[in-house]
Amino acid sequence: MQIVEHLPLVEAPEAIWRSIEAALEARRPRQAQPFIRWRWAAVATAMLALSGAAYWRLAQPPGAQWEVLRLAGSPSVAGKAIRGAGRIGAGEWIETDARSRATVKVGEIGSVEIAPGTRVRVVTERPSEHRLALARGEIRATISAPPKLFFVDTAAGTAVDLGCEYALSADERGFGLLRVTKGWVSFQWKGVESLVPAGASCRTQPQAGPGIPYFDDAPESLKQALESFGFEKGGYDALGAILSESRVRDTLTLWHLLSRVEPADRGRVFDRMAALTPVPAGVSREQALKLDSGTLQRWREELAWTW
User: Under 8 Å CB-to-CB from 82, ≥6 apart: which residues?
Assistant: First the structure.
């Protein structure tokens, strides 16, 4: 217990609150329960989660190199081929040719598989931050740790792990694709954020950041219209196709779309979302069209039940 006395004070990340709230909601009937009882339960759970996260951070040695395992071919670390296993530290590159694959053990929080034709660098390996930079190729990350400890930089922005498994690909120009298979990933670029849950994907583009996420099983016509709208400036016709093709779970796409369309088009997006699923109490059309952050967050938390 002595180490607990020296744990740093940290602010609860938003993602932890989302996870706590989702877990509590999953265990209770959908009928409303007293707010105070729910909030105290959330506070207690948050304190345990933060204590565990802080203990975990203190237990990790700073500056330790990560283990690299050869899976196929002749991957190289810092320009030297590895035969079986090797080590990689901050500032060093791992590269694979068309026939090579490797796995990097990311400290104690998970692993990253390096696909053929990939070049990736270890940027930071501190206990509180594990960061890679993907220059080109594809990686597949499996992370089990408190949120916001693992980051991958690309020319189009940064993938922020929220406790997940995902694949991220990018070419040398920064055009790429994020595909999440478990948990959530936040992709961020200059104030633009796309939240991508399991079963969904998001395209990325340099000087534009993340596109609008969509579920992989969405209609192909919706995906095509979305790409046209997001990166090709397809305009009014593309927006109309997105709205008409959207299903209930595609409110994921529409929720992100609401803040990226022109102000004059926000009403069209809101009305389509309202037609697909009831607007929850506390979410007004007026505030949503103003992009009030509290309103949008509340709406997202309710919509996530369908995602």
Answer: 68, 70, 74, 75, 76, 102
Residue 129, C-beta contacts closer than 8 angstroms, at least 6 positions apart: 149, 151
Which one-letter DSSP state was computed for residue 172? T
DSSP 34: -
Q: What tokens were used for 108?
A: 């104690």
Buried b / exposed e over 234-265, threshold 16 CB at 10 Å, is beeebbebbbebbeebbbbbbbbbbeebeeeb
- Span between the terminal Cα atoms of the chain, in Å: 40
What distances in angstroms separate CA 33 from CA 26, 278, 297, one per listed residue?
13, 20, 20
Task: Identify any residues that bridge with 110 across adjacent strands, giving them in sequence order.
Answer: 106, 143
Q: pLDDT band at residue 232, thresholds of 50, 70 and 90?
A: low
CA distance 81 to 285: 59
Q: What is the pLDDT of residues 271-298, one digit of tens each?
A: 999 999 999 999 999 999 999 999 999 9
**How far apart, in whole angstroms, are the C-alpha atoms of residue 258 and residue 255?**
5
β-partners of residue 93 are 121
Contact 74, 81 (CB under 8 A): yes
* Residue type at position 151: F
Q: What is the number of other CB atoms lying within 10 angstroms of the CB of residue 23?
A: 12
Q: CB–CB of 292/298 below 8 Å?
A: no
Which residue, 179, 234, 239, 177, is CA-closest to 210? Answer: 177
Average pLDDT, the chain: 84
Q: In whole angstroms, what is the distance from residue 102 CA to residue 289 CA?
A: 47
Q: Which of 192, 253, 241, 177 is nearest to 217 (CA)?
A: 253
Residues 93-102: pLDDT tens digits? Answer: 999 999 999 9
Cα dihedral across residues 32, 36, 38, 39: positive or negative = positive
Residue 237 has pLDDT above 60, yes or no: yes
